[in-house]
Amino acid sequence: MHIPENYLSPSTCAVFDVAMIPLWGYAVKKVRETVPREKMPLVGIAAAFCFLSMMFNIPLPGGTTGHAVCGTLIAILFGPWTACLAVSIALIIQAVFFGDGGILAIGANCFNMAFALPMAGYAVYRVISSRIEGRTGELVGAGVGSYLGLNVAALLTAIEFGIQPMLFTDAAGAALYCPYPLSVAVPAMMLGHLTVAGLAEVVFTVGILAFLRSAVPSFGIEAPSSGEKIAPAVALVAALVIASPLGLLATGDAWGEWGLEDLAEMVGFEPAGLATGWEWSSFMPDYSVGALPEAAGYIVSAIIGVALLVIIFRLAAGTLKPAVDFD
Amino acid sequence: MPGHGDIPGWLAKPQSFEPIHDRSAFATRSALSVTAVLRQLRLDDGRPSRFSASAPVKLALALGAIILNSLATNLMVTLVLLAFVLVRAALLPRRALARFAAVAASAAMLAALLALPAALIGQSASAIRLGLKALVSTGLAMEVALTTPAAELTGGLRAFRVPNLAITTIDLALKNIVLLGDCALETLTALTLRSVGRDADKSASLGGVAGTLLVRASRAAADTYDAMRCRGFEGDYDREAQVRLGADDAVWIAAFALFATMFLHLEDII
């Protein structure tokens, strides 16, 4: 679901980049108002769950791959605006360090996965959890919300891909950027996400939420800080890091994330905008670390990503007011 | 005694005194930089974590890792070290983490800035590589400083056959530097308060400020040294020099050996 560089026209990217600026601004304001300072490191750990879940590639029908996002999970734990910020930072780290998603397309990727996904997922979760009481209601709400949230994000991504050949063509009528129209992009994306990827999102969200509720009840914005150890949550992050090479078992690219040569082979021509567009060269492309074995490279990448997220949110805690008001 | 109507004319005359703008940039900027340095130094009481290696081992391994990072032509060596540095940083207390981030990020940005001409001629990878290497090396040095009490750090130097005199000097400097910073601040504040009116050449006071500090520094050092002698210090750090390796040290040394082997393999030496 990560839109790579040059699959969207620069003008499409600019629209989403500009649209995300006020959303990020509002998200920062809401986080400052609602998230207590001592909870910010926990947001970093939740963002790590999101980062790691996106590394577990799953084979989808049609020979492509997909992954969970866990945006709804963060929204349930810390609120939808905190999720918007946390998933955005995870996506920016992925784009800058690992070349997963384009730099110019950061606005579009964040709109789909960091804004639309947690907002939609959280809204559904609230409706269901208010009608079914107790832990069951929470978990059912989380499951249905995360499933619908992921599919809303996938649908938006498919639409963004699909409108490119309608809007941007050369004089001969050939697509400049993503060559697949809506009639291809929407069914291709949705088939995988309505089935396997959606299910994976449910498993990750409900599984992690159930684990946290039983092992670390204070992990979330609503539960008061009781000074209990967060070691089980850290252990889960470590386990996911070690298990992350499982994501390598799924071969093939995700839909819409092919290299230029693969795409040219499939459609019979190189879209001009894709062939000549600007591209950021990350130093750990595709979560690989040069000559290290793929699995080792994947683990090193996961460690760097998780550590960066925890550091960013712990530093951000320093900018928030302490819970005790000394005035 | 004059009544209300007998106010002297000169007193009734309205006055509007606006002091002319003083050139106090030297004093205020110096004060600001001294304060900034002090803020950094006041945090220098590093605290070891549960699995910390002993100070000499930590110093040796950090030095070895910095050397390997500098020698590495393969970016993977730097990336593996980066993973370690970031994980260790994520576990630091928040104030120490803020200090780590400020120093390491500044060093990385400075290194990347120095390599900017290379980026402009199409070698942006070199600028990123240099920035990463600076981040890792500075990060390692910072983590050693932030996780080791200053006294253990200077004591650990003895294991590397650093002369006693040098260690005593470093020890005294570390102990007095914060006090001297306070002295510098007081002197600069006094200078600002005392110079009324326009003083075009305030920086000429630099000699006075520095001289005062030098005198107070030598007095403070002499006093501290005398106090240390009175408490039985004979200028000998041999006791600290006895390195006893614990289980934690063995684990750290083994991890470093593994990393060094990976370095040799990636650099095609073995």
Briefly summarize what is shown.
The complex is a heterodimer of chains A (327) and B (270). Helices cover 64% and strands 1% of the residues of chain A. With 327 residues, chain A is mostly helical.
What do these coordinates show?
The complex is a heterodimer of chains A (327) and B (270). With 327 residues, chain A is mostly helical. In chain A, 64% of the residues lie in helices and 1% in strands. In chain A, a hairpin with a 5-residue loop joins strand 1 (58-59) and strand 2. In chain A, helix 2 (40-53) crosses helix 4 (80-98). With 270 residues, chain B is mainly α. Chain B has two domains: 48-148 and 241-270, no CATH class; 163-236, no CATH class. Chain B contains twelve helices and no strands. Chain B has helices at residues 9-12, 25-41, 55-71, 75-90, 94-114, 116-120, 124-146, 150-157, 164-194, 206-230, 238-241, 247-266. The longest helix of chain B is centred in the middle third of the chain and has 31 residues, at 164-194. The N and C termini of chain B lie far apart (103 Å). Chain A binds chain B through residues 281, 283-284, 289-292, 300, 303-304, 307-308, 310-311, 314-315, 317-318, and chain B through 74-76, 79-80, 82-83, 86-87, 89-90, 94, 97-98, 101, 124-125, 128-129, 132, 266.
